[in-house]
Specification:
Shape of chain B: elongated
CATH superfamily of the largest domain in chain B: RNA polymerase sigma factor, region 2, helix turn helix motif
Strand content of chain B: under 5%
Number of strands of chain A: 0
CATH architecture of the largest domain in chain B: Orthogonal Bundle
Distance between the termini of chain A: 43 Å
Distance between the termini of chain B: 37 Å
Bound molecules: zinc ion
Structural class of chain A: mainly alpha
CATH topology of the largest domain in chain B: Rna Polymerase Sigma Factor, Chain: A
Largest sheet of chain B: none
Oligomer: heterodimer
Number of domains of chain A: 2
Helix content of chain A: over 70%
Largest sheet of chain A: none
């Protein structure tokens, strides 16, 4: 290693964060080169000089003025719904998860309902839509038809139960709208807090 | 008082403060204002500015006390607030009429002038420390903050990274560049 290469690595070497084999190479070079050794000593002296800086002593007046000013400010409190703020991402994740589960359940219910349309007499437009869907699937998917039939049979029992519960799809939708509103509220609250927080807080 | 005892005492005082006990905050201030003042004083060239920013740091900590995570170190939180306020302060000032460099060069404000009020400040700072500090004062704000936190406050690189919200690699780069610039400025010690 030549001098200029060693000098470019001296800071890292001093911090003991230089990886091997460079660290050994730098150590070996510094042991024999007075110029680079002097530069390393310079780093040590700068650091030692900073470590030796004596503590400054603020005036007692500063203590009095801080506490006097603090007394004029509104008292801090634990913050309304501080847990909600602290856990807002968890709340958002839970809400999103619930919404996703609800949406998936609704989708299954709608699919089964449509698919069973032709088996279910008197379902009106739902039956027509189901029959149309089946005709379309039959016409376009050929070999997929058997699979589609099997899938339908497999969920037939579930379908009946869901069909009975079909009105609850409305409840799902209402619940999801509620969850979405709650998420928006929590995010807005988080943003508002962010706006008044200094950039320095951790 | 050991560090962990001191930490528990801080946590107790913070809890009391959040329960509406304001004198508990006065105790917190009296426990930590010297340390916070020192971080700030080493980054700002004048003791008046340092006192102002120390006050600002504590008032900010006070109004945001509910956001402090009790599992963390209160002095570290204060130092993070303090060093970021200093960076902001220096940036603002750099954009104003008289630059820090000009003030230092014109000798209007010696780099290490201790506050007049206390007798300790009559002590002369070792010549090396004075020269190195004067050089540190001329560094860009973030390099200055990194050098002060690392070598005067003795913080670890990852603690500095957390306080200044930058990657550890960036902290290292700033530390190395800052030290190299200081060596360049002070010459032989
Ligand atoms: Zn060499």
């Amino acid at each position: 290693m030549n001098c200029s290469r060693v000098k470019s690595l001296l800071e890292e070497y001093f911090e003991e964060s230089l990886p091997e084999p460079q660290a050994t190479a730098v150590a070996a070079h510094v042991a024999t080169c007075t110029d680079c050794a002097a530069e390393l000593r310079q780093i040590e002296r700068v650091v030692a000089a900073l470590a030796a800086v004596p503590a400054a002593v603020p005036s007692e007046e500063l203590l009095r003025s801080i506490t006097a000013r603090a007394a004029e400010l509104p008292r801090p409190d634990r913050g309304r719904m501080v847990w909600l703020r602290r856990w807002r991402w968890a709340v958002v994740a839970a809400g999103t998860g619930m919404a996703a589960v609800g949406a998936a359940a609704s989708a299954v219910a709608v699919l089964v309902w449509l698919g069973l349309g032709s088996h279910v007499p008197g379902s009106g437009w739902v039956a027509d839509a189901g029959a149309f869907l089946r005709r379309w699937v039959d016409a376009t998917s050929g070999g997929m038809v058997a699979l589609w039939e099997q899938a339908l049979e497999a969920v037939y029992g579930l379908g009946l139960a869901l069909q009975a519960a079909a009105p609850t799809i409305g409840v799902y939708v209402a619940a999801e709208v509620g969850i979405l509103l709650a998420i928006v509220f929590v995010l807005r609250m988080g943003r508002r807090r962010e706006a008044v927080r200094p950039t320095v807080l951790i | 008082m050991s560090d962990s005892e001191a930490g528990r005492e801080d946590a107790r005082l913070i809890a009391r403060c959040l329960d509406g006990d304001r004198p508990a905050f006065d105790l917190l201030v009296s426990r930590h204002y010297r340390g916070v003042y020192n971080v700030i004083y080493r980054m700002l060239p004048s003791s008046d500015d340092a006192a102002d920013v120390t006050q600002e740091a504590f008032l900010r900590a006070y109004t945001r006390l509910d956001t402090f995570n009790l599992g963390r170190s209160f002095p570290a939180w204060l130092r993070a607030i303090a060093s970021n306020l200093c960076i902001d302060h220096l940036r603002r000032r750099r954009s104003q009429t008289v630059s820090l460099d000009q003030r230092l060069e014109s000798g209007l404000e010696p780099a290490d002038e201790s506050p007049d009020a206390s007798p300790e400040n009559q002590l002369t700072v070792a010549e090396d420390s004075r020269r190195v500090l004067a050089a540190v004062h001329q560094l860009p704000e973030k390099q200055k903050a990194v050098l002060v936190l690392r070598h005067i406050e003795g913080m670890k690189l990852n603690e500095i990274a957390e306080a200044l919200r930058m990657p550890v690699g960036t902290v290292k780069t700033m530390l190395f560049r800052g030290r190299a610039a200081v060596r360049e400025m002070v010459g032989e010690l």
